[in-house]
């Protein structure tokens, strides 16, 4: 299995011994040894991944990198967080995906109102199995624990990913910026209940739900 490690906070190094990884197309910045690159169709595996992304107009292209040596990945100086999967599923926004072990299954999941409120389409990327994945964020990601006693409410513009046994619901609400008349507030908030982890970034992406 390929070995993921960070060099600094914004570059992912993957050591491979005839292994393979899936990575965001165009994210390779350097490599040594012998590497082969192949573009994969769609952000998910199979027909469903291709069709759902075509319907929603999402532009997520993934490449497979296979070889012997080390390959380095980065994208727009984004901060990178490594996520270990032990048979569970990671749900990550397409724009926040960087790389994953080739043995992990990737696909798509319907997000409905959440995706519409974020302006990211109606589907999000799923990564499932045993192995490592790397996700990106605008600023260092913060990992928040959700438990039965402590549900979590997240601004959709700050949401990056989540994993675990979590249920999502959507509620209308205001942010402090809306409260003080500065605009840019979110008409929707995401509420997580159950047991799991939620990854958020300290910088909000532009969404289409504000000021509704």
Secondary structure: elements and pairs:
Blueprint: E1 3-7, E2 11-24, E3 28-40, H1 46-56, E4 62-73, E5 79-92, E6 97-101, E7 105-110, H2 113-118, E8 123-137, E9 142-146, E10 152-154, E11 159-172, H3 176-179, E12 188-200
Antiparallel strand pairs: 1-2, 2-4, 2-6, 3-4, 5-8, 5-11, 6-8, 7-8, 9-12, 10-12, 11-12
Pfam families: AIM24 (PF01987)
InterPro entries: AIM24, AIM24_sf, Trp_RNA-bd_attenuator-like_dom
Protein name: AIM24 family protein
Shape: elongated
The value of Rg in angstroms is 17 Å
Number of domains: 1
- The CATH topology is Double-stranded beta-helix
> Main sheet, how many strands, which sense, barrel?
12 strands, antiparallel
Work out the helicity level: under 10%
Low-confidence runs (pLDDT<50, min 5 residues)?
Answer: 46-57, 113-121, 207-212
CATH top-level class: Alpha Beta
Structural class: mainly beta
The run of helices and strands is EEEHEEEEHEEEEHE
Could you explain how this protein is built, in words?
- Pfam families: AIM24.
- This is AIM24 family protein.
- It comes from Streptomyces lividans TK24.
- The chain is mainly beta and 212 residues long.
- It has a single domain (3-200), classed as Mitochondrial biogenesis AIM24 (Double-stranded beta-helix, 4-Layer Sandwich).
- Helix content is 10%, strand content 56%.
- The protein has 3 helices and 12 strands, in the order βββαββββαββββαβ.
- It has helices at residues 46-56, 113-118, 176-179; strands at residues 3-7, 11-24, 28-40, 62-73, 79-92, 97-101, 105-110, 123-137, 142-146, 152-154, 159-172, 188-200.
- Strands 1, 2, 3, 4, 5, 6, 7, 8, 9, 10, 11 and 12 form a 12-stranded antiparallel beta sheet that branches.
- β1 (3-7) and β2 form a beta hairpin.
- It is elongated, with a radius of gyration of 17 Å.
- The chain starts with a strand and ends in a 12-residue tail after the last strand.
